Amino acid sequence: MRRYYLHTRHHGIFYAELVTLEGCKLTARSTGTRDRDEAMLKIAEWLRACLISLQVPYQPL
Question: How far apart are CA 11 and CA 23, in angstroms?
């Protein structure tokens, strides 16, 4: 199972959609960079530091 999806939005800025352990996608979060390698490093930091809780699935409004 993938832990995240990476895509570009808004003038080439990379966004990441992290995936919970249950397989639910969380809301896309900006990496703040146009460089793919830098975006991947930012995502790795988020996953490693647990800044985003992967236990809570996305709750639509």
Answer: 29
